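Q: How would the structure tokens look for this protein?
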Amino acid sequence: MSIEYVVVSEGEQDEPIELPTEEDGSLLLSTVSAQFAGASGLKYRAGGRLRGLRLVDDRVLPPAEGWAAHRYFCAFPRTDAPTPTPRPRCSDLIVLGLPWKTGEEAVRDYFSAFGELLMVQVKRDAKTGLSKGFGFIKFADYEAQLRALGRRHMIDGRWCDVRIPNSKDGGSAAHRKVFVGRCTESLTADDLREYFGAFGQVTDVFVPKPFRAFSFVTFLDPEVAQSLCGQDHIIKGVSVNISTASPKRERGARSQLLGWGLLESGAPRVYSWPPDAWQHSAHSAHSAHSTAPPDAKPYLKYE
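A: Here is the predicted structure in token form.
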């Protein structure tokens, strides 16, 4: 078969050029892309409708009626198509606080309610065979993992926690936790979980008892936690301040008394936060170096 020239343009209204075919009558895609960078194929208009040409082994095949019957223009990959998001992979989860009597079968029965399990293991002492009080699980579905991480679990009459192990990244737990200051007794753990759940998956909320005017919130994603630090938020009418939660080993060396809080009629009236985190009042604000009244209760914030 003699070489034939095909009339091709970049767009339907653009000026065309002629491209040579191969001996078998096909048109190499490399020939097209050499003239029109990024082209992934050819199409033409027939009867008012667009038709694409078949591409086999990087060769564009002619239509049944032959190359000369139409004028062709390039097809390009869509750039506005959304890039598929990689599906998150499930990780091994550690189950803390298991009762000594709880075995793998009981753990599997409980967590099967959240989704299919790929692995269940209760750690036991090598000599005695007794449970060490913790174990590991792994789900097949990431959504099941999130459901299990988002709450506490009552297993055989005891509260247990499910977390992502931090053995490969010792600092990740601190990076996922934030300090919530200026809390009031009206804010419950459920209130904090519901509010901060809008920013990312919350894995734990700690509200100290007795009341200490602060709380800790732990997120699944450390980037979510760090993005909130330094911000003020209004939760059910209460203005709270978010800051980094320092690891315990650092708090002992760096803790400092930032002020005094006075209790009047059993309710906290002045909180000991840094100057940029609380409102001073002329009659009740005390500096960190002042002497506290006998009935005053100090509040500590660790930085």
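Confidence is low (pLDDT under 50) at residues 167-171, 249-303.

Residues 104-111 form the longest helix (8 residues).

Upvote if useful.
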